[in-house]
């Protein structure tokens, strides 16, 4: 039984109701390109089930998420020719969370790109 929030944009993406550029999918995890990338190749990795923040994600999903982060991180670096990679994760509005379905940002970085995260 999936955990879905009918108001959540990422739940709609998981359900295929809103299109996205999917780059990784398993039974429990989905990754797609961010619609407003910091750099081309900026990817989002998330549990398919709706958990509002990092602290709500069951620890049993840790292995699936870590496998996805590693695979997507490698693919993003290879596809973009990046020199580095940031993993970023925001919880609650005070920390910059806009979409309340927990997700991880993988952001390709380039030598001296001047980006301050
Ligand atoms: P947050 O600030 O919550 O950590 O990040 C939310 C991210 O989701 C933002 O980087 C934003 O560009 C991205 N985003 C928001 N709506 C959509 C959408 O409909 N499709 C995709 N692919 N990304 C989205
Ligand atoms: Zn959701």
Summarize this structure as a short list of keywords or feature phrases.
117 residues, globular, binds zinc ion, binds guanosine-5'-monophosphate, 5-stranded antiparallel β-sheet, Histidine triad (HIT) protein, HIT family, subunit A, alpha+beta, 21% helix, 5 strands, catalytic activity, single chain
Write structural notes for this entry.
There is one protein chain. The chain has about 120 residues and is α+β, with helices and mostly antiparallel strands. It has a domain of about 45 residues: HIT-like (HIT family, subunit A, 2-Layer Sandwich). The protein is about 20% helix and about 20% strand. The chain has two helices and five strands; from the N terminus they run αβββαββ. The protein has a five-stranded antiparallel sheet with strand order 1-2-3-5-4, with helices on one face. The termini are far apart. The relative contact order is 0.22. The model has no long low-confidence stretch (mean pLDDT about 95). The site of zinc ion has 6 residues, from helix 1.
């Amino acid at each position: 039984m999936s955990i879905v929030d009918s108001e959540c944009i990422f739940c709609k993406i998981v359900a295929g109701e809103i299109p996205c550029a999917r780059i990784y999918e398993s039974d429990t995890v989905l990754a797609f390109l961010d619609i407003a990338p910091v750099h081309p190749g900026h990817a989002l990795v998330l549990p398919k089930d709706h958990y509002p923040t990092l602290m709500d994600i069951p620890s049993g999903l840790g292995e699936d998420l870590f496998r996805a982060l590693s695979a997507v991180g490698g693919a993003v670096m290879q596809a973009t020719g990046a020199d580095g990679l940031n993993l970023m994760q925001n919880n609650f509005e005070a920390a910059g969370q806009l979409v309340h379905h927990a997700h991880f940002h993988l952001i390709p970085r380039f030598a001296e790109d001047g980006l301050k995260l």
